[in-house]
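Our platform keeps sequence and structure together, in a single record for each protein. This encoding replaces a full spatial description with a residue-level series of whole-number codes. We quote a single record here, exactly as it is kept in our systems:
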Amino acid sequence: MTDSTHTPRDLFGAVFDGKKVGRPPFWMMRQAGRYLPEYRKLKQKYGFLELVKTPELAAEVSLQPIRRFGFDCAIVFSDILVLSEALGLPYSFKEAGGIALPRTVRTLADVDALNDNPENLRQKLSYVAETLKILRAELPDRALIGFCGSPFTVGAYMVEGQSGSNFQKYSEMARENCEVFSALIKKLGNAAQEYVKMQLECGVDAVQVFDSHAALAPEGKYFELSGRECAKILELPRRNGGRARSILFANGMGGRFSELLQTKADAYSISSEVSLGAVVSEYGGEFCLQGNLDAALLSEATAGEVRKAAKKIISEMLPHGRHIFNLGHGIRPDAKIENVEALCGAVMEFK
């Protein structure tokens, strides 16, 4: 397969099938957002949630990085906590930064009050479906990625009531109040599955599960607390019978890759402190790896340093072949546009 005769969407699918390609497909976590001047201009006029919930605006934000940089993949502009809001627990942004929820989930009665009726969920999240339909029509030759937060990660916010904490109350619930924790995770899992089914019906090429607080699970307990529900979500693209695939991003799990493998994702997004080559050497496997340039380089390094680091990662992964180039985490708001341009050139022109 040569990149010049196939579309970016074909390139994305090829790496999952283990086909040899000249370079990896490329996108960046949080590629639609605050580092882009065109996004900041929109943000002066519209609030974040207004952008997310207005399909035409969410599609525009999703398309901005494609127009500027030509990434192989577009990811829908949304938020992991839209699932909490659809269940009846909305969220807002605090003036000092971070998110806040008006109440918390601490009891079985609180869990029972969450409305996970499939029709209700689809109605509440229909704006995401409409955004995806716009993007699919606009980008027939590029891979389209949908996503959801993992039940474990979304549950952390719902129990704690805010971001920026150490999630002590959530950890205590998982450890000491298993009945409420299990009921919450199961309800969130059912809701997430319905949400992902809806996205698959809109023609996405992959669904990424963001397990941003995976590391809250004690060592050896990841699958029990989070991975089991993630596995049910990650299986949906295969059950759907189409070409869509699944990706798991489990943050802070360096050195615990064996626990992630229990989820049976098609691809695993790996943070920057872990060598992709080392993962391949130790585990081999038919899975893809995604990553894993340090996002700090786009803010702090020179364009030449970014290019050098990117080429090193690609060269390391070429023998394995199953590689999607990305960052190890989301791009920072202070990333330099010239460094993103240098990164795009390094990946897309790789020989």
